[in-house]
Amino acid sequence: MPESPSPHDPRNAALRIRRWFEPALLVVTVGALLVGGLAWAAGATSTADAAWMVGTAVAIVPALAWMIHALRRGRTGVDLIAVLSLGGTLAVHEYLAGSLVAVMLATGQALDSAAQHRASHDLRALLERAPRFAHRRTSGGLETVPVEQVHIGDVLQVNPGEVVPVDGLVRDGAAVLDEAVLTGEPTPVERAAEDPVRSGAVNAGSAFELRAGTSAAGSTYSGIVRLAQQASAERAPVVRLADRYATWFLPLAMLLAGAAWLITGTAVGAVSVLVVATPCPLLLAVPVAIVSGMSRASRIGVIIRDGAALENLGCASTAILDKTGTLTAGRPAVIEITTAPTNTPREVLRLAASLDQASPHVLAEAIVMHARRQNLALTEPREASEQPGRGMSGIVDGKRVEVGKLALPEEKPRWVSAALNRAVLDAAAIAWVSCEGDLQGAVLLRDPVRNDAPRTLKRLRRAGLHRLVMLTGDRAEPAREVATVLGLDWVHAERTPAGKVACVRDETTRATTIMVGDGVNDAPALAAATVGVAMGARGATASSEAADVVLTTDRLDRLADAMSIARRARGIAVQSAAIGMCLSIIAMGFAAFGRLPPAAGALLQEGIDITVITNALRALGRGRRDEPAVPPSTEDLLNHFASQQQKLRETLHLVRDTADLVSADPTSAKALTSLLQTREFLNRRLLPHEHAEEAQLYPALAGLLGSPDATATMSRMHAEIDRLSRRLGTHAEQAESHGHITSEQAQDLLATLYGLYAVLRLHFAQEEENYFALADPDRTP
């Protein structure tokens, strides 16, 4: 883990000094102003002047230091006006005005410090919660060791209330975790045995054992902490924008001050102009808005490295997105199981998953997870071995089973050719399954598009992005298919890391560009973009460290949220600066003609500063949401029906398999059996699910979306699914009465089956994009 900040670090010493100095400065300047006011009321004018002079003199010393610090950083203008106004009041003996300016500066600095303290609370909390020790299980029991001594493969015990020290897998049983620091979701989540767990989560249940998957330095939380340590409001480019404003604001103030001297015939008029020209709106309100926006983003699981990244994120017009792990889930999933005529999909899946339990390969993991979701009873394999590039081999139920890239016969059976054709059309990987040397089936796997990707990309366009580009090292065909589904403007496929950098640089020359990725090979491209955004929840540490923005939760929609926050914060920053300067210019005009004495001008400027700083703090708020806020009860319904629909999707292939059998030989017994199974699936599982959605989910969504008409299209889809299911049921009854599917039925039955399959696929996709993506999938009801 990153080391704790040293107490001897000069930066930390400066922070400690600032914590007490700014409140002390405010107390001294306010005290001097009040003492002077009381003395003036008692008739002791010389005492009053002395008190006000002390307050002014106390403030001018740090003001000079701020000016020198700004000059060293290449900033000029705004700090110079503050020093001139304080010095001017002392020179013309306008001590009350000087005291008011001093209070104004001290108040502004205190407000700025308080805003930064509040805005960086979430980032500091990451540092404070960083785990320092771990409980490692050894042959002699448990030993407590520094987290830096944890190695991959160590078995750790995480006690109740402790922070998970490193990334890993739950060893056995279940773990209940509070992931609020990582995701912003306050509801605990449950992780079963062999489920991955990220460091930084808090054990909200009983003690559990964790098998370390990374070292402390390579863990998720360590990467986030390193990023948090670098976050600073000092580098906000809108502050530089304030200095650009000052390039004309300073000459204007000096010109009006000179004009006031000529018009009024005294230096007091010039000092009055300088007093109301003190540029606290530029010095304070702008960075307060920027830091507040960074804080708001951190609360939803988006860590923004600095103010420069926030401003650029808020004005970007082009987004370049990696495919794998960004637009897609980043892990393969089983999409179909094709079998030989002598076998069934469930048996083929059981054999493959039983053997693949012994393999760490990502495809094997996907097959095992799919089998467990199907509640299949898996057998422990024996003599399991893996050949790189070929697959697994072992004994399952006393028979030799092989899974992977197997040799295919020269004369391929029809079902093998069909599986190969589907793999090409769906851009899927194939894991062939054989038993005792005979091919039994094929498992097709593909990296699916994220459910939240289509909706997120639409939100990004609404947020101001005009060009969406995919950048991937994958083949052109699967890349173009994903791009077509998501409506992207351009695709760069089969790119090496160097090629990705070249593409990003080319796009960046034309517009402010954000690059979103998650892999090690994305790190150079992230660094080349105007703003690099890393999917840090599962992404590589290298990509997170190269990025300007890190999404700490595995949700792409957080990028749209972050862009909305950045645009709002940037807009509030510019608005605060513009309002403050306009009001100051008006006041300077009155002062130039002698209508605003220094003391009154200082008091007026104090009000202006408080107004714009208060306005800047609005960036901490939520603002207007472009997505509806989902009530917990509706979110529970969404997650419930989304889970049911995922299980239905995994059985949906039965409809198309039946159509294929009918097309091959409608009168066969196997075609009739498959048709009856399809009818059973529709009547017992799918239609009750659709009817429950219509009765429970859609009324809740109508209230959420503001109109019953919002779900009208989906209700119409339900009606079409009902119609096609009844038609298929009628065909099944006729075929059952004849003992086979008749030739007269075949053509209409095929149309019904393929039509039903297409409608269901489209309906599921629409629900997942429009409705289920609104909910947090990690929420536990």
UniProtKB/TrEMBL annotation:
This is Heavy metal translocating P-type ATPase. It is found in: Cell membrane. Residues 639-775 form the Hemerythrin-like domain. The chain crosses the membrane at residues 20-44, 50-68, 245-263, 269-291, 572-593. Its main location: membrane. Keywords: ATP-binding, Cell membrane, Membrane, Metal-binding, Nucleotide-binding, Translocase, Transmembrane, Transmembrane helix. It comes from Saccharopolyspora oryzae. Residues 130-229 form the P-type ATPase A domain. InterPro entries: ATPase_P-typ_cyto_dom_N, ATPase_P-typ_P_site, ATPase_P-typ_TM_dom_sf, ATPase_P-typ_transduc_dom_A_sf, ATPase_P-type_domA, Cation_Transport_ATPase_IB, HAD-like_sf, HAD_sf. It is a multi-pass membrane protein. Belongs to the cation transport ATPase (P-type) (TC 3.A.3) family. Type IB subfamily.
